[in-house]
Amino acid sequence: MSFSDLFDSEFKQRNKGHFSAIVRVALADGTIHPEEQDFLDKLAARLEISEAEYEEILSEPLKYPINPPYLHVQRLERLYDLTRMVHVDHHLEDKQEIMLRKLGIALGFTPSNVNHIIAKALSLVDKKVDGDTFVYEMQHMHK
């Protein structure tokens, strides 16, 4: 196996882990709503998830581990995707918010500040900010 094949394989696994985390959030209330389905379809294409992989992840989202990104900016970008998924149906259910907190910890945010981070993330997504604004505001939330 060449080095580039190894890199591609690792990149693909990370994308599957990220996608499965988002599927878990979508399924937290027991169903995938049409808006969530649209978001999943677009995200799968962006993450280069094949149709077969897509179906497998939908049927077994716990099969793939959540691989937190090394860089803080990448963690915030993933948090943005997850928060948008939770907020897409415009009403939060307890299971979805609890799942978002758990995924926040899995992404590497500490238990002591995850509630504050999730509250800020939900506030920003509620204001319909774009990804760049989200990352900037999250990076500067304590300043």
Automatic annotation (TrEMBL):
<dbReference type="InterPro" id="IPR029024">
    <property type="entry name" value="TerB-like"/>
</dbReference>
<protein>
    <submittedName>
        <fullName>TerB family tellurite resistance protein</fullName>
    </submittedName>
</protein>
<feature type="domain" description="Co-chaperone DjlA N-terminal">
    <location>
        <begin position="20"/>
        <end position="57"/>
    </location>
</feature>
<dbReference type="InterPro" id="IPR007791">
    <property type="entry name" value="DjlA_N"/>
</dbReference>
<dbReference type="Pfam" id="PF05099">
    <property type="entry name" value="TerB"/>
</dbReference>
